[in-house]
Each structure stands twice: as structure tokens, then as C-alpha cells.
Design brief:
Blueprint lengths: L1 E6 L11 H4 L4 H15 L2 E6 L3 H10 L6 E5 L8 H9 L4 E5 L21 E4 L4 H18 L3
Parallel strand pairs: 1-2, 1-3, 3-4, 4-5
Length: 149
């Protein structure tokens, strides 16, 4: 099993950026938690953080035939990432939208996600646990698709 983990713009600042919203856990710590969980689940991860939408789209394209799913925190692309939305719709594997905060409980302009209609599901509001919950769900989905659930 292999999965992508894609972190969008400004998420490299986790731990420093608005800790009252995102907490103090850094992106490196989130990635370490994901790698540890992936090892327990028998999965490999390809992880990318980029401040550029095209880099995230390119990573999806690059792994279109190599992974069984992806976790995506689109961050600031949530409301405007048309190219990212279109790339997700072209993928043959499930993509889960991840948010550390509950976007519905934040500023009104954050409530709408252009990404949500293209993904299998959205996990949000659990802090860094949104990522680990997503990874567990992807592993279960991959097992079910292989008939090993």
C-alpha cells in the first residue's frame, strides 16, 4: 500500500501560525506521526508540502498509477483551487480532504470548499488527528478494494 500526503500553502508554518487555531504541533511532527502510523499499517507514504498549486497537481499526476489513495490538506486552495479540484477528479484512487480546524466554524468565506465535491470525504476539526484519522480510513478503503478487509 502506498499513499500520497499533500500539504498545501503555508502549512509549513504549523506550530507557529495561529497556534490558537492550529495548535503547536509542527508539520514535521505531523509527518512523523503519519510515518509511524503508516509503518504500523504496512503502508508507504510519499509526502509533499508546497505553496504552489501546480506542484500539488504535478504530484497527483506523477503518482496516478502508483498509489492507492491520498490525503490532501488544500489549505488556502480550499476555496479557489480549480486546477487541484480537476486533478482530483481525474484520479482513479480516493482522495480525502483534511483540515486541522473545522472550516465551518471559522470565517464565513472559509465555509465553502471547491475541493469537497471532488474528494471521497472530508475530515476536519480534529487538529493533527485529522491526518491520522484520514490515513486509517485510506488504509481500510485500500484493504476493502483489494478484498483483504
Amino acid at each position: 500500500m502506498k499513499f500520497l500526503v499533500l500539504h498545501g500553502p503555508n502549512l509549513n508554518l504549523f506550530g507557529r501560525r495561529e497556534p490558537h487555531i492550529y495548535g503547536t504541533t509542527t508539520l514535521a511532527e505531523i509527518n512523523e506521526k503519519l510515518l509511524q502510523l503508516a509503518s504500523e499499517l504496512g503502508a508507504e507514504l510519499e509526502i509533499l508540502q508546497s505553496n504552489h498549486e501546480g506542484s500539488l497537481v504535478d504530484k497527483l499526476h506523477e503518482h496516478i498509477d502508483e498509489v492507492q489513495g491520498a490525503l490532501l490538506n488544500p489549505a488556502g486552495l480550499t476555496q479557489h483551487g480549480v486546477s487541484l479540484h480537476d486533478a482530483i477528479k481525474a484520479m482513479p484512487f480516493p482522495v480525502l480532504e483534511i483540515h486541522m480546524s473545522n472550516i465551518g466554524a471559522r470565517e464565513p468565506w472559509r465555509h465553502h470548499s471547491i475541493i469537497s465535491p471532488a474528494v471521497k470525504a472530508t475530515i476536519q476539526g480534529l487538529g493533527w488527528r485529522s491526518y491520522t484519522a484520514g490515513l486509517r480510513a485510506l488504509a481500510e478503503i485500500a484493504h476493502e478494494q483489494r478484498g483483504t478487509a
